[in-house]
Every structure is written in structure tokens, then in C-alpha cells.
TrEMBL record:
The keyword Signal applies. GO terms for cellular component: cell surface; extracellular region; fungal-type cell wall. The keyword Transport does not apply. Residues 1-19 form the signal peptide. Keywords: Signal. One of its GO terms (molecular function) is metallopeptidase activity. Residues 27-241 form the Putative peptidase domain. This is Related to ph-regulated antigen pra1.
């Protein structure tokens, strides 16, 4: 049946009227959906106790931490499951959590997290302490001790002066040191990062034996970021000599599988907070000045390779 011209025009007009409310609804909904997300606070704040010189050095170190994380993100996105990812996280590792941890450092909400310089817990009096997470005293706060300003190196010196990632302290570089410290702050990674392996060879062994633990191992994330970044500066990087893993690694890696999904305990043992562990073993004071000591929520102290 053919419609006459007047009837066709009337039909089209009626269709336009009927569709108008629906079109308006879609346009309004699109406008709402296109609105920007609420701005988050991605800045790691520096406490008023830090003077101008300290603030300048810490600010630069935070920028270098983000540079390391951002470079790692780009590498994983462009080369997922390549030899370097497998080396540090394992052949069966999922890149998603690794990407998420790095992205949190760059883009995530930093909340009330603070970097402070006033030695509020007194731990900076120990000769080898570069800083510490405050633990139960203030879980969102990290203290940077004066030693950091004279022993930490800028990122452009990575691989210089004979540095070897396989044997030397990764936290010699201020940006990498803050990456490590950031992983302690619950607001950043929601207590999903742990210490399953610390030394370079132990981290490589962990990747081979327990990839689910390796992707949330603090030092694996730190070593990967430094290694990948170093290869932008030096063609072959600067891993250098790699020693054999410690004998305890195999059993430790197996034990990690049962705890990989659970955050560190903060029960009664957590009462040994940063302020309460100032009576550090005398042996820790004999370590070299570049040693990094800090406390964990369960009261344990990590020094040396950190």
C-alpha cells in the first residue's frame, strides 16, 4: 500500500514527536556519563617537618619513583610475558596485579599518606637507618632519616660507579627506595604486598617456584622496575654477578603459597611498633651506611639489602 504525500508527512511528524522524549533521555544520560570522574589526590604529601632542602630532595625522589613505575607499566603493556617479566615474576604469573601495583604508585589516591622528616619515633638515631615506616604508630606515615640525603643516589646514576643490581642494594637510588617504602603503606596497595624473598637471587628463585607470591613480593617489583629502566640507559643493564639463592628459599617459597592471598598479621605481635623497636640489635649498627632499615606491621625489622 502506498501512502499519499499528506499521510506520509503526518506519519513522519508523529514519529518525530514519539521519539523526542527518548532521544532527549539518551542525550541527557550521555551528558552524565561523559562527566569527569571525581578528582583523586594522587600526591604523596610531604610533612611540614621537612625543610626546603629535604622537601626538594624528597619531591625529586617521588618523581623518580613514579618514573620507574610508569616505565614498568609501559614495558609490561608493550611486552607482556617477555623474558624479563618471566624472570622476576614467573612463567605462570598474571601481569594484571603487577600493573595494578605500579599504577597505584603513579595514579592512585594517596589519601592521608605522609613523608615526614622529624624523627618522631627516635629511630633515626641509629647510624644505619635511612628511614622507616611508622607501623602501628601511624600506618600512613613514613619517616625519612637524614642519612638518606647523603647516601641515596639520583636515578640518572643508575649503573654508574660499578653498581650491580644482582649484589648491591636497590634502595641506593632514592626513587627505588621510596617505591619500596610506598609498598608498606596500606592506603597504597591495601596490604597486598609482602616480603616473601629479599635478595636478588632469592627473588629469581621465587619467580621459578611460586609466581603467585612473586607478583606481590616487594623486592621483585623493585628489582624489575630498576632492571627495566637500566636497560634504557645501559644497553645490557647492570645486573652483574648473581649468586646462588639461600638454601631456605625453596621452603620459604612453598610456605608463601599458603599466605599469598592473606595480608600480614596485625594481631598481638603487631604491638612491637616502630617506636618500640628502637632497641635494635647491636649487629645492625655494624652494617654499612647505605643499609636501609625499617619496621613492619608485625614488629619485624628489615635491614641491609633493603
Amino acid at each position: 500500500m502506498q501512502l499519499t504525500a499528506p499521510l506520509l508527512a503526518l506519519t513522519l511528524a508523529a514519529s518525530a514527536v514519539t521519539a523526542a522524549p527518548f532521544t532527549s533521555f539518551l542525550e541527557a544520560r550521555a551528558a552524565v556519563n561523559a562527566g569527569p570522574e571525581e578528582q583523586i589526590d594522587a600526591v604523596w604529601k610531604i610533612h611540614e617537618s621537612c625543610n626546603g632542602t629535604q622537601r626538594a630532595q624528597i619531591s625529586r625522589a617521588v618523581s623518580e619513583m613514579k618514573k620507574l613505575a610508569h616505565n614498568s607499566i609501559n614495558h609490561i603493556l608493550n611486552h607482556p610475558m617477555d623474558e624479563y617479566f618471566v624472570k622476576y615474576f614467573g612463567a605462570k604469573a598474571d601481569p594484571a596485579p603487577v600493573l595494578g601495583y605500579y599504577e597505584q604508585l603513579v595514579y592512585g589516591d594517596k589519601g592521608n599518606a605522609l613523608l615526614r622528616c622529624d624523627n618522631i619515633d627516635g629511630n633515626c638515631r641509629f647510624p644505619d637507618w635511612n628511614g622507616h615506616w611508622r607501623g602501628n604508630n601511624a600506618t600512613s606515615e613514613t619517616v625519612i632519616c637524614d642519612l638518606s640525603y647523603v647516601t641515596r643516589r639520583p636515578l640518572e646514576q643508575l649503573c654508574a660507579f660499578g653498581y650491580q643490581l644482582g649484589t648491591d642494594n636497590p634502595s641506593q637510588y632514592f626513587g627505588a627506595d621510596l617505591m619500596h617504602r610506598a609498598f608498606h603503606v596500606p592506603e597504597f596497595v591495601h596490604e597486598q604486598i609482602h616480603h616473601y624473598a629479599d635478595s636478588y637471587p632469592d627473588c629469581l628463585e621465587l619467580a621459578k617456584t611460586n609466581s603467585s607470591a612473586a607478583v606481590s613480593n616487594q623486592h621483585s617489583l623493585q628489582y624489575f622496575a630498576l632492571d627495566i629502566y637500566s636497560r634504557k640507559t645501559v644497553k645490557w643493564g647492570c645486573v652483574g654477578e648473581v649468586k646462588a639463592p639461600t638454601p631456605k628459599t625453596s621452603s620459604a617459597a612453598s610456605a608463601a603459597s599458603s599466605t599469598a592471598a592473606a595480608p600480614a598479621s596485625t594481631s598481638s605481635s603487631a604491638s612491637a611498633t616502630a617506636a618500640q623497636v628502637t632497641a635494635a640489635p647491636a649487629a645492625s649498627q655494624t652494617q654499612k651506611a647505605s643499609a636501609d632499615c625499617h619496621t613492619h606491621a608485625d614488629g619485624t625489622i628489615h635491614c641491609g639489602t633493603h
